[in-house]
Amino acid sequence: MTLRPTPEDTPRFDAPWHAQVFALTVALSEAGAFTWPEWTETFAATLRARGGDGPLDGSEDYYMAWLAALEEMARARGFAGPDAVADMADRWRAAYLATPHGEPVKLS
Amino acid sequence: MQHDHHDHDHAHAVLPPDPALRVRALETILTQKGLVDPAALDEIIDTYAHRVGPQEGARVVARAWADPAFRAALLDDAGPVLDDMGLTGRQGEHVTVVENTPERHNVIVCTLCSCYPWPLLGIPPAWYKSDEYRARVVREPRRVLAEFGLELPAEQAVRVWDSTAEMRYLVLPMRPAGTEGWNEADLARLVTRDSMVGTGRPRAADEVSAP
Fold it and tell me: For residues A58-93, b (16+ Cβ closer than 10 Å) or e, as one string?
């Protein structure tokens, strides 16, 4: 594989959730939930563990690793366990499916 | 971007992909627990999706090219200089500016994850976050730089700087020839993101319209 430069004017985030998971992590750190070095340690460990599945390309798979690291951080610190996150994700899924197209999606 | 609506008729809102729902779920739970403020999230997204970018770093580089006293202060201890310009890191990290010379070319990486001087360059491009760049630029920097179109003379040494949560780096590229007398705003137009990472050079004087 070779690397090649990319234009500067491409969107900074490829998907809205990439920006959301990034912002959630920065906000938690700034609010004192964990320090940034604590975050990078967890994230680096996640990246190392995922490297076995083949090289990450730095976009979708990178943010998948970021999300996994944040979920681990939330679990380890007792903020939110995997079951609570899965249940809440199901509630959001149901809310999307129950909301007419074009209207704001809200949890019931 | 993924859309999972190929077999739906759009009667309901477009269902985001699974990871997006998990992020949404985390956000809901953490907001309910008072650990994050939704307004703070919006501010961070707006800042990094739309506002902060390589133009901040370009201002710093252009001033360093134009003002020898500023350049000396920046290379000596970038922290106070960047504070004065309102470019302080959000995580309290330190920034070291490393200067390219005919004898030494500098390039930055984060081998552990993707630490990057956000206040100066914004969100890193995907290649900076890729396993390939993170692993190979340390092992074979000249080859990686050649893939970016940067062929360095054999007599110019290459130094790779590995960023951490506490220490980030910015490359001060060499000022292009033929720019004597240019003001800072004109000089800043020559500065590219990649030239401040070390994977590129600034634009040549004749690549932008003359001031």
Answer: bbbbbbbbbbbbbbebbeeeebbeeebbeebbeebb
Whether chain B has a CB inside 8 Å of the CB on A78: the answer is no
Residues of chain A contacting B166 with CB distance shorter than 8 Å = 37
- Say yes or no: ipTM exceeds 0.85: yes
Contact A97 B15 (CB under 8 A): yes
- CA-nearest residue of chain B to A50? B131
- pLDDT tens-digit series, residues A79-108: 999 999 999 999 999 999 999 888 889 987
Domain-by-domain residue ranges, chain B?
A: 18-50, 53-207
Mention the CATH class of domain B53-207.
alpha beta
Whether residue B13 and residue A5 make contact (CB cut-off 8 A), yes or no, is no
Residue ranges, chain B, pLDDT below 70: 1-10, 92
Q: What is the pLDDT of residue B2?
A: 47
Which residue has 């993101």 as its token pair?
B193
Closest-CA residue in chain B for A87? B25
- pLDDT of the residue at B89: 76
Active site residue B114: yes
Give the model confidence (pLDDT) of A37-64 as tens digits: 999 999 999 998 887 677 788 888 899 9
Angle at alpha carbon of residue A10, lines to A8 and A12, rounded to 5°:
95
Determine the 3-state secondary structure of B162 from DSSP: strand
Which ranges of chain B does DSSP label H, i.e. alpha helix? 18-32, 38-46, 54-66, 68-76, 78-84, 118-121, 126-129, 131-139, 141-147, 184-188, 193-197
β pairing state of B94-99 and B167-172: parallel
Among B9, B18, B21, B107, most A C-beta atoms within 10 A, so best to mutate, is B21
For B163-186, write each residue's pLDDT tens digit.
988 899 999 999 999 999 999 999
